[in-house]
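It is worth pausing here to work through a concrete case rather than discussing structure prediction in the abstract. The textbook approach is simple: state the sequence, then state the predicted structure, then interpret. We follow exactly that order.
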Amino acid sequence: MVIVTEFNCTVQTYRAQFEQLVFPRPTTCPHCQAAHSFVGHGCYPRKPLDAQQVYPLRIKRWYCTACQRTLSLLPSFLLGFRHYLLEVIQAVVIAHYEDAISWRQVAERCAPQGAPSLRTMKRWCQSLATQAAAWLGQIEQTLAQQAPALPLLDALGLGAEALAPPQGLLAASLHLLAWAKTCWPELAAYGFNERLRFLWHWGQARGLARLI
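Step two, the predicted structure:
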């Protein structure tokens, strides 16, 4: 099990200041619902990369003494089961779905040194397309309840229906972040480049599966 956790830092800062980070201990096990059952269980390694280098990291784990399951605190700049940093993946899906440029242009913009491979970038976009409808539905439901006056996603989901799910999700993520920033002051610094980072954190906390 994982909990996507916002440490409000870059991968470089996370790596350099790991010993000083505060790792939130969940009060309830998401698997068995036992209260106050988690104890420390060390860390496991991850080696995410961008287009230029690898960042060896440690991921904090908790252990539930009630159900014997482990729980990992995955930093929000990482996706589950993806080797590249979220910011790298975000650049690719935005180039493909929002900017609608050719795959050759995507490769020139996002992988000028040949990495990630074109095959990998296409796989990311296909994965987002598979997950987009479910995530978009959750955003529509949330904004219909909390901010029905938003122009893109009103109570009927008008506007989002005119877009294919991947494009609709990317557009809706901006509206979700705009609403969230009115609720949580700590998101004030979040902008266009952090929208999928916030979306990943938000959606995983609501039981949504992988984003990309």
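Step three, interpretation. Residues 153-160 have pLDDT under 50 and may be disordered. DSSP finds six helices and four strands in the chain.
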